[in-house]
Structures are given as structure tokens and as C-alpha cells.
Design goal:
The protein is an alpha/beta fold. The chain has two domains: 125 residues, Tetrapyrrole methylase, N-terminal domain (Cobalt-precorrin-4 Transmethylase, domain 1); 137 residues, Methyltransferase, Cobalt-precorrin-4 Transmethylase, Domain 2 (2-Layer Sandwich), CATH 3.30.950.10. The protein has ten helices and ten strands. It is elongated.
Length: 271
């Protein structure tokens, strides 16, 4: 029996899940560029800007069919089951299918459901990774996820968007992890920022540095920096909304445009 990774390459892929990155077309990978230019059908998310396709699709080439399958929190969205069935149908009809997603398909992109549907139908599929928006957000803030000078020992990526039928994120547990020197990066959190703030304050002090970055990497990028105790007010004061990333942790301390308490998180935790 062939290893799993070897079996995946017996047949060339006819479907791809491609990460478009955070929005700036220049952040696409070379492989993403090649796959997009070879596609005959592209299923595109709302969070992927039109400028991505405009800049990567060669004008002289036969234009692929573009299908918008919008998925945006709080808005009418294309049903995931429909997207999966459409990908399978097009691939089995002989099309070269690309499912183009914002950021990276494997980071809160529901890639698992689409991979399962394609594989169950016998469609060879491959994932092409992209730069996740959480990484673009910390880059926009001139810091890093794991700045050792700030004592960061790792990074935790979480979603603020509860799954249907679930009680939502366990903010108490998440805050406890962040309190151990882990940088917290929250996707889809601004719509429930009051709940997020209350939950994190269960284990983190009010002066914990926070930042919110909207439209990371794009010309419309905006950000605001403050402290956890004023996070919800910060979002409302600056009119920040989706798509946005919330970053929490000492890696934000000392930013040139931040006025933050100089007391590290660990000092407050010992009180």
C-alpha cells in the first residue's frame, strides 16, 4: 500500500483549494498564480478582492468562469453544502476547479468539508496555502507573533464566531492560555467584541495590550491599539468592523503608535 502522501499524487489534481492571502495581490504565492491561470472555473469568496483576479489572470488567456459564493459573517451567505456539491459537479464535468479563499484555506476556511466532499466523489484535490490574515495583521503592526523580547512563547489562533449549535468560544480557557505568554490572534471577533472582552478579562489584566486591524495588507487598512479593558470601546470609537483581526499580548507593547501601560502581563497575573 502506498503512503497517503504518495497516493495523493497518483492522479494530478483537478480541483484546488487556493489561499488568496490577506488581500494584497502581491502576497499570492507563485503556485497560486500558476493554478489560477490554469483554472477554467473559479469559485471565489467575498473576502477575496476583485483586484486579485484582475492582476493575476492574463488578459490574452481564455477567461475562466467566475462563480461568487459569498460567505461573510452576519450577511446572507452561500450554503456550504451547495458549494461542496458545485465543486464536485464541475470537477466531474472535466473543469479545472479552483476554490479561491481569503487568507489560508486551512485556517478557519472550512476546507475540511470541501476536501471531504471532493475526495468522497473521487476528485483529486490539492491545497495551495496562502498567507493568513492574522499574520498580515501583526505585520501591519510592526511586530511579530513570537517576539522573544516580549516573552512570547507561542501563538494561539482562535475564532470569535461560534459554530451553529455550539455555545461559542471558551474565553476563560483561551484567556488562561494567553496569560502564559502566548500571543492571541482572534479571527471574526469584532462582531462579538463585548463578549470577547468580558471573557478574556477573566484571566488577563485590563492593561493587557490589544490591537484591532481591519483590511490587513490593503490600501483601506486601518488599525487601533489600546488595552483589553477598553477593547470594545476602541472598536466602536474607531468604527472598526469585519474583516478584522484582534491581537492580544505583550508583543504589542512599545508600538510606536501605542500608549500602553508599561507593566508586563505576567506582573499583573501574580497579583
Amino acid at each position: 500500500m502506498l503512503p497517503i502522501n504518495a497516493m495523493a499524487h497518483v492522479q494530478p489534481p483537478t480541483a484546488y483549494l487556493v489561499g488568496a492571502g490577506p488581500g494584497d495581490p502581491e502576497l499570492l504565492t507563485l503556485k497560486a498564480l500558476r493554478v489560477l491561470r490554469a483554472a477554467t472555473v473559479i469559485l471565489i469568496d467575498d473576502l477575496v478582492g476583485e483586484q486579485v483576479l484582475h492582476q493575476v489572470l492574463e488578459p490574452q488567456a481564455l477567461a475562466p468562469r467566475i462563480v461568487h459564493v459569498g460567505k461573510r459573517g452576519g450577511c446572507a451567505s452561500t450554503l456550504q453544502d451547495f458549494i461542496c456539491k458545485l465543486m464536485v459537479r464541475e470537477a466531474l464535468a472535466g473543469e479545472r476547479v479552483v476554490r479561491l479563499k481569503g487568507g489560508d484555506p486551512l485556517v478557519f476556511g472550512r476546507a475540511g468539508e470541501e476536501l471531504a466532499a471532493l475526495r468522497a466523489a473521487g476528485v483529486p484535490v490539492e491545497v495551495v496555502n496562502g498567507i493568513t490574515s492574522g499574520l498580515a495583521a501583526v505585520n501591519a503592526l510592526d511586530t511579530s507573533w513570537t517576539d522573544r523580547h516580549a516573552g512570547a512563547q507561542g501563538v494561539l489562533l482562535v475564532t470569535g464566531h461560534p459554530q451553529p449549535g455550539s455555545p461559542g468560544p471558551d474565553w476563560d480557557a483561551i484567556a488562561a492560555v494567553a496569560a502564559s505568554g502566548i500571543t492571541l490572534v482572534v479571527y471574526m471577533g469584532v462582531a462579538r467584541v463585548d463578549e470577547l472582552q468580558r471573557g478574556l478579562l477573566a484571566a488577563l489584566p485590563e492593561h493587557t495590550p490589544v490591537a484591532v486591524v481591519q483590511n490587513a495588507s490593503l490600501p483601506a487598512q486601518r488599525d487601533a491599539v489600546g488595552t483589553l479593558g477598553g477593547l470594545a470601546e476602541l472598536v466602536r470609537e474607531h468604527g472598526l468592523g469585519s474583516p478584522a483581526i484582534v491581537v492580544v499580548g505583550d508583543v504589542l507593547r512599545g508600538l510606536r503608535h501605542a500608549a500602553l501601560d508599561t507593566q508586563p502581563m505576567k506582573h499583573a497575573r501574580s497579583a
